[in-house]
Write a structure and sequence with these properties.
Length: 105
């Protein structure tokens, strides 16, 4: 079970985008995520008439490592660590470590 999933609201812990918030757009692989508005870079792109793309400098989001992100806790309004616990009915759910509240029901 993943601690951070697609659609989660996350906070960046380290790097040049530290303390910025964004939504997880896509899971690239086991360790990297694509977050909306985070880790933006400028890419110099050549025009490709076959694909119909124009050239120029474009802004693009690059993947960021999971260890540099934490889930945003709406109750405390801060970044929070995540744990996984098993409910009595056998389901596994994520919960915030600071206050024990369940993330997904």
């Amino acid at each position: 079970m993943r601690k951070i999933r697609k659609g989660d609201d996350v906070v960046v812990l380290t790097g040049r985008d530290r303390s910025k918030r964004g939504t997880v757009l896509r899971i690239v692989d086991d360790e990297r995520l694509l977050v909306e508005g985070i880790n933006r870079v400028k890419k110099h792109q050549r025009p490709n008439p076959a694909k119909g793309s124009t050239g120029g400098i474009i802004d693009k989001e690059m993947p960021i490592h999971v260890s540099n992100l934490a889930l945003f806790n709406p109750v405390t309004k801060k970044a929070d660590r995540i744990g996984i616990r098993q409910l009595k009915d056998g389901r596994r759910v994520r919960y915030f470590k600071s206050n024990g509240e369940v993330v997904d029901v």
